[in-house]
Amino acid sequence: MMEMDWYLGLSAVLFTIGVIGVLTRKNAIVIFMCAELMLNSVNLTLVSFSAQLGDVHGQILVFFALCVAAAEAAVGLAIIIAIYRNNLTVDVTKINLLRW
Amino acid sequence: MDAYVHLVPWIVLIPLAGFLFNGLLGMASGTFREQKNLIGGVATLAVFIPFLLALWLFFAMSGDSDAATVSLFTWIEAGSFTTDIGYRLDQLSLLMTLVVTGVGALIHLYAIGYMAGDEGFWKFFAFMNLFIFAMLNLVLADNMLLLFLGWEGVGLCSYLLIGFWYTDMAKSDAAKKAFMYNRVGDFAFLIAMFMIFQIVGSLRFEDILSGTGLFTTDQVFIIGLLILIGATGKSAQIPLFVWLPDAMAGPTPVSALIHAATMVTSGIYVISRLSPFFMQSPELMLFVAVIGAFTAVVAATIALTKYDIKAVLAYSTVSQLGFMFLALGSGAYVAAMFHVVTHAFFKACLFLGSGSVIHAMHHVEHKLHEEGKHVHFDAQDMRYMGGLRKYLPHTYKTFLIATIAIAGIPPLAGFFSKDEILVMTFNAGMGTYGAVYIGLWAIALITAFMTAFYMFRLTLGTFHGEFRLPQKFSEAKGAEEHLHESPVTMTSVLWVLAALSIVGGFIGIPNFVVATFTGTADVNLLSNWLDRTTMDADLTLSKLVEWFLLFGSVLVAAAGIFVAYRLYEGDQLEASDARISERFGAMYQVWSDKYKIDEIYEGAIVRPTVRFSERVLDVFDKKGIDGFVNFIAAAVRFTGGVVRYFQTGMIQSYAYGIVLGVILVIYMLLFR
Amino acid sequence: MESANELLTILPLIIIGAAGLFVMMLDAFTGSARLAYLATILFSAAALAVAVSDLFGPMGESFHGLITYGGTSSFGMVLVMTGTLFSVILSRDYLEKTGMHIAEVYSMILFAAFGMLLLVSSNNLVTLFLGIETMSISLYVLAGLVKNHKKSVEAALKYFLLGAFATGFLLYGIALLYGASGSTFLVDIAATEDKGMIYWAGVGLLLVGFFFKISAVPFHMWTPDVYQGAPTTITAFMATASKAAAFVAFILVLSRALPDARADWSDVIWLFALLTMVVGNILALVQDNVKRMLAYSSIAHAGYIMIGLAAGTDAAYSAVLFYLFAYTLMNIGAFGIVAYYEWHKGYDFTEVSNYSGLGFKQPIMGVLMSVFLFSMVGIPPFAGFIGKYRVFAAAVDEGLISLVIVGVLASAASVYYYLRVLVHLFMKESENGIVLSRPGTLYTASLLILAALTIFFGINPGVLTDLLGSFWTVQY
Fold first, then answer.
1. Closest to A93 (Cβ–Cβ): which among B650, B656, B659?
2. Which of chain C's residues have a Cβ under 8 Å away from the Cβ of B176?
3. Which of A59, B67, B379, B513 would staple B90 via disulfide (CB 3.0–4.6 Å)?
């Protein structure tokens, strides 16, 4: 049981690092990487639970999550390229035409 | 009554058919729009036929008939809760139906002449029929939800009709103002409806009225107060009355129909409908009475100072509606309904008469312009009138009759209904909170004096003396030859309404008048008619006191007329006003500034928020506000102006919002 | 044998999935947007028809409990397909006139719709997650459709980054719930006995995931920017189909996975419903851009709908479903008319002042706009009123009176901003010499149908309410 808490703790720390990264970084690509970090930390949680429960569903979900992350990366990078073409920057603090 | 109740849906649906006919054909075809006689004829018939049906029902029905309901189809069904599109035929709803369709048909007829030159003729009549349809739904509904549908509908139609000449900014502002003030009341009404539903489990009047015992006194007070707020919005009482005078910007037939005879009385109708409910809380009744009495006197004092003839009539309407609320609060539901009926007659007559005057004055202005004389004046301003009786004889005579009726001189209609209200208020002075009611009675008596006074000021200023326009503008010499009487379709309507103003009071002759001579009497037709639908307070006064009160009210009315005659006969309008203004000083200024209510709302609530936000936060963009007075929206806009700055456009501030929400959710679930 | 029958339970999913692939191929081989458009309409209509007929069919589970069908799920499919079909019909004219008509739009719409259909029929957190993500990723692409327009691309970026961020929380919630209950099936989660910290954290994060999708305050901030920046008919699609799908899935989760915890989540939803109504309405009041105003208005509507969720009774759920239906009809309609006005001047012609005097130039469009806006205000006899009324009534039954009072007051204030559009349309003088062309027949017809349905279900909601009420008499 002790071991379990370590895994969960590690993934929670990673998740938090991801959240803080999203909140503080300015480069769209880095923000996206931090969001990916959040997903992957959750994958760690899922795998640990799966191992603890002796149940395979958690691992299946991890594979789906990886697929989703890959698809998100494909779409996301395309969007970021489009942003760069239009604004010549990927600094999210400079992209605020839409507001209020 | 069950045998006839199947007629009721037709009463409601025929005006709808009229609306669809004129509305759809008018939208579709340009040539149809030119067929003004057809359009006006169909629209008038669409109101007149329901009137005939209602009349037939009236003769088929007697005072002790039971209420009957008819359901068209189930509207909303959710578990145990069902609401039908259903109509309730009883003495009260039939009385209102007769007034709405009868006066409505006359005003439609009048409007054919009045609106003849207007481009949007078809639209006007389509909306008028739609209004009648909504109003009939309101008075005939057998449940509160359908009543609310009508309630919203009349508000919407009034909005459409006030803003009828929408190219004029002031008019569309007035329309918006009317709509917004009404909405404030409507939502109070909606909340009351939810609370009633929660307690009774039904919104049918049958169930509500038989379930009055389910409410605690506090609940009655709160729900009643909410309904009262709704009613003050619709019926233009303190504190929501300011929209009605502005609503006079609409065409005159609209003022006569919606803002004098029908829509504005719907608040009174609703409270009468729920009379057994309201009677349970003396405090609530007192509240209604106080609002009524104060509205009556405040509006009357404002009316003393106005020169715009429609404005005088508008404030007079507010004041008379105050009388009706006073009657409701005194437990005199029959008297209130009585005044609704007589007021519909004489006030419609007065408004249509003023329409005739304005019509004539516009014509004069138009003719002068044709002659190349550029004289500009306000066609509704009394100061440019005077002496019109020579040129508009029919208008003058009918206007005078209606004025005498509203002043309260026997045996005209207004006398009986107003006297009954005064008597019943005095009567309420014998019961709980008696001293307050006696005070309200005194206020009402003073108001009755002022009513006679300002109405004769209006009549004398408009029709007596010399035509003042040529005195004001040297160019306008000889302008009186352009004055002409309105066409016969319009004057005949005036005569019908004048006749009703004379005889209308006989439906409610007080019993004691006859009983003094014969011992007992049963001559008050209206009271017998409404016996089963409203729950009136008992009359405990002795005959002597009643006679005393009766003579008192006649005396007061006569005194008002006498003073007005002394002051205003013979072109003394402005001179006398100046003297009154001198005598009353600051008080007169307050009256003439309409108690600064608009300014108070504007100054205390709207402007500070706007100024504060402009200066401190530079929030309001220049084009932002359409300049309409709505303190709720303005206050909320101010908050919105601040809150919107959280929406910075930066992705990360949005992410912060999300994290904040996450913390809140987790906190609520984990650390309760 | 059994598996063939099981395929029938997800027939709309199969149709739309196949359609998405087919349209994509069509694009690759012919490049014809017109063909893609026709194929999309045909497939969507077929899926809608199947979903409607499923409404009257049996309810149950298939694919070993991964999928739920019939009843609420079928109604969710009807909502999604209604939204999809009408957005597609309205899209062609709008996209052609603004020069964005490419076949890919339709395949992306179909893929998004596929995700939504999966979402409303999910009986398991894995399918739920897949549904949400398939929907979202397709919508990111659609938001950035105009790839050389700054606002559109900005909308896509914001939607994407915040969506990915919210996905993290959602997935974390799913993982924790899985850990606490040992299963991803909704029914098994309901049977969790040990409700410890992990369980509650999981529930909380799952709620957060849904709050983001239904744009509850303070998770709403992406909504106005994305709705304003995206092409208008795409906005219509996002505002109706994706929101309805998220709400239906939310109902499934609340009623199946978390029925015992109702007292707890009800308080949370209560608070966020309050915030959503108040902030949504207040911010809608200060908007001068009609699209943005409609975005905030959709947030406000989400708040009213959440009142029903907070009540959490069967009657409330069925009221919410009705509300969603009314909401879908009137929102597509309103956005459709915004799109119509917009295409005459090009992208961004959506300031309320632009609308001055347009109402009478094509009266039918002005009248239709009035119908949709009055329905949104909640004035009888339109469907919006019935929806609001039933949700409020169900909440009053549960004693949420203060929340209902706030809701009623908030909708009182909402009159201002809806009315303002109509005032500009009908009561202001036209400043710009804009000439409105006649909209296409199909365009007008579909708007007319939406308006007719709005009025029909306002006058005679019984047909639908009976059906919706029957969903909840069957217990799982």
1. B650
2. 419, 423
3. B67
What pLDDT does A72 receive? 93
Answer whether residue A6 shows pLDDT above 50: yes
Q: What average pLDDT is seen over chain B?
A: 82
CB-CB contact of C283 with C298 (8 Å): no
Q: Which chain C residue's Cα is nearest to B668? A: C268
CATH class of A2-91: mainly alpha
Confidence check: pLDDT of B182 > 80: no
Residue of C312, C244, C221, C275 lying closest to C410 (CA atoms): C275
- Determine the Cα–Cα distance for residues C33 and C20; give it in Å rounded to an integer: 14
Residue C311 vs residue B70, higher pLDDT: C311
Per-window interface: C 280-299 vs A, CB < 8 A: 286
Res. C324: pLDDT tops 90:
yes
User: Nearest-CA neighbor of B63 among B523, B530, B509, B508?
Assistant: B530
**Is the CB of B659 less than 8 angstroms away from the CB of A19?**
yes
CB pair distance less than 8 Å for C160 and A61: no
Q: Which residues, in sequence order, are bridge partners of residue C124?
A: C185
Q: Which chains touch C (3 or more CB pairs under 8 A)?
A: A, B
The answer to whether A57 contacts C153, with C-beta atoms less than 8 Å apart, is no
Kindly state whether B32 is in contact with chain C, defined as any CB-CB distance less than 8 angstroms. Answer: no
pLDDT at position B155? 83
Which residues in chain A have their CB less than 8 angstroms from residue C168's CB?
Answer: 15, 18-19, 35, 38-39, 42
> Domain residues of chain A, as ranges?
2-91
Q: Nearest by CB to C460, from B73, B172, B621: name it.
A: B73
> Where exactly are the structural domains of chain C?
281-476
Q: Reply yes or no on whether the pLDDT at A18 is more than 80.
A: yes
C126/A57 CB distance under 8 A: yes
Q: What is the ipTM of this complex?
A: 0.96
What letters, b where the CB count within 10 A reaches 16 and e where it falls short, cover B418-435? bbbbbbbbbbbbeeebee
Q: What is the pTM of this model?
A: 0.69
**B617 in contact with chain A, both atoms CB, cutoff 8 A:** no
- In this prediction, residue C270 carries a pLDDT of 93
Tell me the CB-side half-sphere exposure of residue B525, using CA atoms within 13 A: 9
User: How many percent of chain B have pLDDT more than 90?
Assistant: 24
**CA-CA distance, B9 to B7, in Å (whole number)?**
6
Is the pLDDT at B172 greater than 80, yes or no? no
Mean local confidence (pLDDT), B588-608: 66
Alpha-carbon gap, residue A83 to B42, rounded angstroms = 63
Contacts of B655 in chain C (CB under 8 A): 161-162, 165
Tens digits of residue pLDDT in B602-615: 665 555 555 554 44
Closest chain C residue to A5, measured at CA = C198
Q: Do B648 and A24 lie within an 8 Å CB cutoff? A: no
**How far A78 CA sits from the closest chain B CA (Å)?**
18
pLDDT at B1 over 60: no
Contact residues, chain C, for A64 at CB < 8 Å: 126, 129-130
Q: How far apart are CA B257 and CA B125, in angstroms?
A: 12
Cβ of B648 within 8 Å of Cβ of A96? The answer is yes
Q: Say whether C129 and A38 touch across the interface (CB within 8 A).
A: no
Cα dihedral across residues A12, A13, A14, A20: positive or negative:
positive
Cα–Cα distances in angstroms (integers) from residue B572 to residues B382, B558, B577, B579, in the given order? 12, 20, 8, 10
The answer on pLDDT for C40 being more than 50 is yes
Give the pLDDT of residue C373.
Answer: 92
* Residue whose C-alpha is closest to residue C198's, from A12, B664, A50, A19: A12
CA A72 remoteness from chain centre: 10
Per-residue pLDDT at B219 exceeds 60? yes
Tallying the residues shown for chain A, one arrives at: 100
